[in-house]
């Protein structure tokens, strides 16, 4: 049976105000790190966090040496090359590792950081385990893999746009089950799972709404509709559940983010007028929302629905982007798919007070 969307209008607009900090000479002012890349909106340091370029996941990954220096060599692509990831399109992270979708090879990769102090197989010089970056599988069962999400139990969900489905895999990339609905799901473009694993949210790029499934792959209800006004989507994009329990959904053409209760209750929108082409979205431990703005080549940070920081510019250096896309936050690190630079950039999310104290 075809069902209509659940929509309870409780409009609470949380619009941000875009006001760059400028000095007496009219130049733009930035934060304590990466001044050329950073500037604040509203009060300086409004986000309470800074993004510090850390490393990249790019090109050919290697397994050479051990320890932190080996991790950096591996991420830089030095040594024996394995598992080529040439065109990342989506990323997700969880206890099982960092999962990267490669669009060119239609493959699923997994990178795992190894904890300090873990001996490698030889134990030579008290060394650490070799970093682990592998291609888990070629996704031959999918027609168009375009988004990935790691559920609380470690399972991996991948959307298949042209295949009209979402596939659930275990942490090692073995398929477990499919989520389909011939009447209500046509072209999935994003997937998210709630913190308890009880609801699977799938954004449909053709119908411009979110289809909600239970863990048994039964579709339950829809969120939103195609159109204008509260709850209306045009070119639906990424999704994430906030630490406050709300579901945040990127509304591409309308250049905003809409917030919903998990039952589909519309709670408001924010970000109008601050984006050119919003795409990916994630949240940190303090519920700050990070959104990629593709055509402006930067990351925007929101706190309580207000824009407080921007980071990045167009380019190829660390901290620069060429059409950043999907992104994910996990345990103090922000991973950003830098699409046209064919890499994933990794940033440390550092509290400002930590920087001000010199790291003490």
Distinctive features:
single chain, 360 residues, mainly beta, Neuraminidase, 5-stranded mixed β-sheet, 4% helix, globular
Beta-strand percent range:
35-45%
Number of helices: 2
- The helix content, as a percent range, equals under 10%
Find the CATH topology.
Neuraminidase
In CATH, the homologous superfamily goes by the name TolB, C-terminal domain
Low-confidence stretches: 2-36, 59-82, 116-129
CATH architecture: 6 Propeller
* Mean pLDDT across residues: 79
Structural class: mainly beta
Task: Characterise the protein shown here.
The protein is 4% helix and 44% strand. By secondary structure, it is mainly beta. Strands 1-18-17-16-15 form a 5-stranded mixed sheet, with no helix packed on it. A 5-stranded mixed sheet has the order 2-24-23-22-21, with no helix packed on it. A 5-stranded antiparallel sheet has the order 3-28-27-26-25, with no helix packed on it. The longest helix is centred in the N-terminal third of the chain and has 10 residues, at 67-76. The chain is globular.
